[in-house]
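Batch manifest line 575
LIGAND: adenosine-5'-diphosphate
JOB: complex structure
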Amino acid sequence: MEDRERIKAILSRISGRGYKAYRDLEGSYGLAPGLTFYLDHAQGDPFAAPSRVRLRMDMTKAQYPPRLFKNPVRRMALQDFILRAFAEKIRPFSRGRGTGGSGRYSVDAGGQEILLRSGCVVTSEYVEVRFFMGLPAAGRRVLGKEALEMILVDLPRAARSLEYAAHSAKEVEAFVDLVEDQEYLRRRLAERGLVAFVRDGALLPRRSGVDDRPMERGAVLFESPPELRVTMETLHHGEVTGMGVPQGVTLIVGGGFHGKTTLLEAISRGVYPHIPGDGREWVVTDAGAVKVRSEDGRYVEGVDISPFIKDLPMGRDTSFFSTEDASGSTSLAASIMEALEMGARVLLLDEDTAATNFLIRDARMQALIPREKEPITPFIDKVRQLYREYGVSTVLVLGGSGDYLDVADTVIALDSYRVLDLTERAREVARKFPTPRHPEGGDTFGEVRSRAPLAESFSPRKGRKERVRSKGLKEILFGEEVIDVSDVEQMVDHSQARAVAEILRYYGRQMAGSKTAMKEGISRVLDVVLDKGFEVLTGWPVGNLAMPRSFEVAAAMNRLRSLKVTFVDGDLGRK
Ligand code: ADP
Ligand code: MG
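JOB STATUS: finished
ARTIFACT:
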């Protein structure tokens, strides 16, 4: 029997029956020449999570020129483009057609960033989109006619957006070229001695704190100060000019409300490519840049924070430091050490979210409280060692402490959203007003140690079942544990949080143990996902996962309150 007839036969047989009868429809069907529909999992109930489905179009029909996906970056870009187009095309078909989620479609197509997502796969054989649909019901009974309409009418129509011919060839090409150039620039930063590049004309401010789209009116476009202007070669856009943020220690100074945080945020997001029209398409940051911040109350397990904090009252050990309830300064010390452990090349910090007593101890406080009574070595005394000994750069937003002028290589100022290079001026000021404070950082930074997460840390069970999921960008639920990831700022997409939840579970099963360093274990899991697809995490195709960076996976793992680690060399560092 022809597949369309098979669908009709099944639906007319189960129409009016209990909702679970939709299970009979699970399987794959040719909807049209070169177009296959997969119902991978029929939901058990119209109020439950919607059904998992796929549409696959043969490349002989979709006809994308191979140059659009000839390397991993271009492929990711093309997949992203197709997924967004498909989401837009199917949206008008999504409407209530009964109880619960009946008649709705949901496609996880992403926001301002372009990430590797599970929702679209392009190979030389086919284009496939993975999404969700609410199979229609009246009460809890199958609505056969409506289901038939969804599958045989909506889907083939929406599937047209999977064809190359449905798009402006120019637009697809421009999208793919833009993403490729962002990655190209990102990979060129280090050899140019830069940690970030912000192109002239970029639009950095967002619509609001909860709306990541570009500000609509009144935005002052970015313009590099002449001293920091660099020209970079691209593959498809000729030469571009803008501000190069040099390696080393960079301060972003300026009065309150002048745009400092906005610039740092853009740099922090610049580790990902952005969609055309975002305004930050040409803000490109070293892929090893990690935003760190204070996080009162966070969990810390077995981190050697002694470069920053030692000799706690009551002789508490800080070379294997654990706490259920870190302070502003200990949490920041731990987050920095964890980022270094994962191989961060750049640290991004903002005074708005960094404990003051971690950043600075001024001359008067040094006179008042003797060194032996202060466990904290402030960041100002470590930031140069970090660069000199580990090659790790820092970009720090700081309006409040001039002592930092002594340790900065570059000083950028914001003045009514305009950027100035005040490096020379800052040197003069530092000469004219020498700081009476004395350095407290010792001779060297100290050690960055590798930790191995133990298998017992990971128990995804909740009751009799394994249960991991995420709640927006705030929490990851892992078995009985709730991981607070609301301060992990470079986790930017709900689907990354979902993927992180699955990666932690996979890590627990496949990697955890005293011999495997967290860095190595996470990078191995991410390589497996890149190689085999997101299905290795879930066991089946699912359309709502997006690739996180290793730093964000580690950040979530480090906040898992059941985490237990040892140092990889077995030594727990207790002296
Ligand atoms: P700061 O960190 O210096 O206190 P913010 O970056 O928080 O300042 O910016 C203050 C306000 O100015 C925010 O509401 C932000 O959206 C807005 N803003 C920032 N940069 C620009 C810009 N280039 N053009 C217009 N408004 C901006
Ligand atoms: Mg600020």
